[in-house]
Sequence to fold (617 residues):
Amino acid sequence: MKRGSSNGGVPLAKTPTGVPGFDDITGGGLPTGRPTLVCGGAGSGKTLLGMSVILNGILKFREPGVIMTFEETAEELAQNVRSLGFDVDDLIAQKKLAIDYVHVDRSEIEETGEYDLEALFVRIEHAVASVGARRLMLDTIESLFGGLSNDSILRAELRRLFRWLKERKLTTIITGERGANTLTRHGLEEYVSDAVIVLDHRVQEQISTRRLRIVKYRGSAHGTNEYPFLIGADGIAVEPVTAVGLQHKASRQRISTGVRELDQMLGGKGYFVGSSILITGTSGTGKTSLAAHFAEAAARRGQRCLYFIFEESASQITRNMGSIGIDVDAQIRAGRLRLHAARPTHFGLEEHLAAMRRLIEEYRPEVVVIDPLSNLLSAGELREVNVMLLRLVDLLKSRGVTALFTTLTPSGVAEEQTELGVSSLMDTWVLLSTSEVDGERRRYLYVLKSRGMAHSQQLREYTLTSSGVRLLDFQHRATSPAPASGNGTASGTAPLAAARRARR
Amino acid sequence: MKRRPPSPPKGGDEGNNPDVWNLRLYVAGQTPKSARAISNLRKICDEHLAGRYSIEVIDLLKDPHLARGDQILAIPTLVRRLPEPIKKIIGDLSNSERVLIGLDLRAAPKGAR
Fold:
C-alpha cells in the first residue's frame, strides 16, 4: 500500500475533475486511483462536487463512473443530476454510469453475532464492473453509522474498504458530514489520508459565500488558500485567487478615452490597451459620462464592449447618456455594446465574479466597464473585496481587455484615498472633483497616475455639455481662479489643494 | 455441514401460504461465518418452524446483482421475506434469542427497540 506514496520524485498521477478552477488549484485534479475525502456541512455542495467529478469524468474524460449513494435514493439523485442538465438515464443506458442506493435502516435490522460488510464491497465491485468505472463516489458513507450499531465492526470495515478501493485503483470521492470538532462527524479523515477537501458555506450580512480549502494532498503541492466557489446553473466553479498571476503582456497599443482632450492629457493617445483604468469622484462628477464616452467610442470603432452597471438600469443609462449626446443605444443596436445591469446585493461577490467571468468569456469584449465598482464591492468585506478585485483585474488583463472602473468617493473623504486600496491595481487613475467657484459648481479632472506614459499633471476644468464631456481650454482656465501652478506641471496633490483653496 | 442449503420449497405454494416462512440467507463465499450462520439458522428453524419454512441461500460472489434488491450490506444477512413485513437480521445468528426476536418468533423483552 505504501509503495506509491513514498514521494520518490515520481510525479503523482492526477485525475482531472473538469470543475472549472479546481484543477488549477490542485495542479491537475484528484489523486488518481486514490480516495479523496470531501467534507462540509449540510448544503455545502459536497455531493454536487462529487457528482461533477463523476459526470465530467464520463463526459469530458471518457472515464465511466459509479455513484454509491447512502442518503438520497437513486431516483432523487438522478433528479439532482438532471437539474444540472445531464441525462442520467441515457448515461446509465449507455453503460457509462451506474448508481446504487444503499439503504440501511436500523429499525429494520436486528444484529446478532459477527458480520462484515462484504455485501457492500460486492455491490461496489458489481457496479464498477458493470460500467468499467474509473471513478467512484461514496455519498455519504457515514450514514452507515446511523444504520449499524456495531461501531467497531463498521470502523474496521471502512478501513478495509478504503484500502480495497486503493488496491482497485479507483479514483474515489468520499463525502463526509462536517463534525463539531472534527472534519467529519465520524472521523473518516482517519482512514482517508490521501487528500482532504473542506467545503464551507457562510452567510455574512445576508450574503452567502462558499469556500473550498484543500486541507491535505499527500505527495502534491496544492494551494492552501480558501478558494471561493459557487454553484451556478451549470454546477460548481472554483475561482482561483492567483491562477493568472502577472504573466500578461503589456501592450504598447493605445485606445482612445472617447474624449479628445483627455486623450491629449494621456500622452496624446489615450489609455493603454489591456490596462486597468480607475475613475474616481464624488457624486455627480460625471464618472458614468466618462465611462460611457469610452465605451461608446470603442464600440463606434467596432470594438466589442461590455458595460456592467451596478447602480442604474440599462434604460436609465441610455437615457442619461443620450442627454449628453452619447448615443449608447445605437451601439447596443449594432451589437457592439452590451449593457448588463445587476443589483450588487443580489448575489455574493463570488457569484458576481462568476457571472461576470461567464459573460466575458461568452461575449469576448475588448473593452469592459464596471460602473461603479464601489457598489459592487459593498457586497463583501474589505479583504474579500480586494481579493475579488485582484481576480477580476487578473482575468481582464489575461484576456487583454481594457477595463475601466468607476468608484464613488464619499464626500468628506480625501479624494485620493480609495477606500479599497484599489489604486495599486490600476494603471491609470483619473480623479474627478467639484469645487464651488463664484457661486457655481465647477468640475475638475486630473490624471493622478498613468503608468508607462507621460501624462499631463494639469487640473483641467470640464463641463458636461449636450455633446458630452468637454474639457475647457487653458485660456478659459487661466481666467478661472483654479490652480496657480502655472506651467501645468504641478504634481501630487498640489493642483487639488489649489482647487480646494479656490473654494474659500 | 451436513445439510446443503438449496431450498426445496416445502408445502408447495408458499407464496400465498401465510404459514410458510420464506427466508433468504445472503452469504459471500464459503466463509466460516456463513457456515456458522447457515447451521445456526437450520437449527433455529427446525426447532421453531419445523415443516413450515423454506431457506434460500444466496452467494453474492456468484450473484452479486441480487444484493441490491434486498438492500444487502452486511454478510451474513438473513431476510424474512414472508410473512410480511420484511425483517432483516445480520450476523452469524449465534444468539438464537436475538434471532427469534428479530424474526418475531418471540416478543422483544422490556420494550427493547
